[in-house]
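lol so apparently i was supposed to do this last week
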Amino acid sequence: MTDKLFRLDGKVALVTGASRGLGKAMALALARAGADIAVNSRTAAALAEVVSEIKALGRKVIAVPGDVSDESAAQKIADAVCKQLGRIDILLNNAGVWEGSYLVRLKKEDWDHVLQVNLTGTFLLSKAVGKVMLKQKSGKIISMASILGFKPSPQTLAYSATKAAVIQMTRIMALELGPAGIQVNAIAPGFFFTDMTKRYSENEEAIKAYEAKSPSRRCGQPEDLEGIVVFLSSKASDHITGQTIAIDGGESLA
Ligand SMILES: NC(=O)c1ccc[n+]([C@@H]2O[C@H](COP(=O)([O-])OP(=O)(O)OC[C@H]3O[C@@H](n4cnc5c(N)ncnc54)[C@H](OP(=O)(O)O)[C@@H]3O)[C@@H](O)[C@H]2O)c1
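anyway here it is w/ NAP bound
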């Protein structure tokens, strides 16, 4: 019984930004839990590896390349998943980009780019897939926030603003979609080792200082997100909505 609560057999999940990093790890976790998967990022070639890894697990998998911040591309991604896999039960809004400048050095084009991908992308995919889920009268929308959406930190203005907005969007979408049986939640990771954080993870001193401060005494690895993404996609979380859950080894407490 408990096992079944967490199984995703027969479900279809769309994961944006799934070519590498946290998105790839979470797409594989959803596939291992039984879901068929549609993987997205901007370039088809970058998706080949995750597609073959999911195939090897015995699940159906399709690549739906496209820029999530482009309205017609977002609609085409959702349409392609419905056409090829029949439905969408889980949307994981994971595609995201980083920007780390001081206010007075932050360029308008960089501000715009971060907002377009992290915020507008989350809005456009949630809108396109939300319509599908409303017809189905069920679904799970999960978005990637960050503990920087709670906790102010210098040189993160554009990025943190988008993540704070994702947290509030999550609550509002939960209010609007809840009566139709759709749960909307967000995951707020702390510092994880991926391409996005490479420029910081190469600084050994900074990592040591971070680890010494965090209650878990370590940074996150993509596998640390597997449990939460399966939980928020499964029946086990059917009475949880509008929440943002920090997966940070206690970093946000320190
Ligand atoms: N790593 C961390 O410490 C950390 C902490 C908190 C939150 N997060 C969040 O977790 C998510 C994943 O981060 P990550 O560290 O795994 O980053 P990553 O390694 O840089 O991967 C980002 C993914 O997003 C895709 N992407 C970027 N722009 C896109 C667009 N316009 N349309 C579609 N796909 C796009 C990338 O593929 P292409 O470039 O090929 O399109 C890639 O697959 C992000 O939302 C990030 O903000 C990460």
